[in-house]
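Reviewers of the previous submission asked for a worked example of the structure-prediction workflow described in the proposal, so we include one complete record here. The input consisted solely of the amino acid sequence. No template or homolog information was supplied to the procedure at any stage.
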Amino acid sequence: MKLVQDERPFKSGFVTVIGRPNVGKSTLVNSLVGRKVAIMSPKPQTTRHRLRAVLTRPEAQIVFVDTPGIHRPQHRLGEIMVEAALQTLNDVDVVLFVIEADKAPGPGDEDVIDRLKGIKTTPVILVINKVDRVARPKLLPLIDEMRRKYPFAEIVPVSALKGDNLERLVETLVGYLPEGPPYFPEDMVSDQPERVLLAELVREKVLHLTAQEVPHSVAVVVEEIAERPNGVTLVRVTVYVERESQKAILIGQGGLMLKRIGQAAREEIEGQLGMKVFLELWVKVRPKWRQNERYLREFGYGQSNG
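From that input alone, the workflow returned the following structure tokens.
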């Protein structure tokens, strides 16, 4: 007798990942989809663009919406970043609110919770990240405290960096998704345009290699991607800063800092593109660009991701 296999209905949906800056949202998204789609840095407000990262399983497709950290903005760019994060709350099937296991909830977390209280029907799952940094018994008081603050549908402790409990998180998310066909092809992991991804990789190296004065004043624009006859791809990039002093820091003595940034970025870009790359970096000054609507549009901020 031939057995008929039980076919579960396919599920698909959108999951936004929110939280204050630097709690590991991008690391979590990268770990869940199994590939680097969002840049990472220990500096706050690393993520500026809202991007979609796609995890496709035989039974479901989860589209994660990685968002900038919710913070109190100091300039127009910050306002755009917060707006991008908040716009996702009512347009998705599940909200993931990420906090850190090794830090008590602070004003930034309270601000996010206040925003969550405006959500009517979307389930909110609390993800306690970085559990590898604390002893398990210390998690219980934090879980109890967060339960008193908001009626979370689920609370899932994870370590995005080490991969702990991520499979349970995925299974939990699938349980909340509606039935439906996939939104994206199964081999797609991000909807981020190539130029944006390459610009972000350059900005990531700036964040890692420069001092506090420079990182948040940097915008990166890929001006040209062109394949040369010798098989090497030219990637021409302009790095914008707000002050001449920042330009001097980025270039460094004898051009050493810019060379370090370029080398690190080129190696990662070659890994992403799977080909040899000649990376050409230029540094230009645009005073107070984070407050200038024209520059913000020119640099790709404040534009809808669709």
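The radius of gyration is 21 Å. We consider this example representative of the routine output the project will generate in years two and three.
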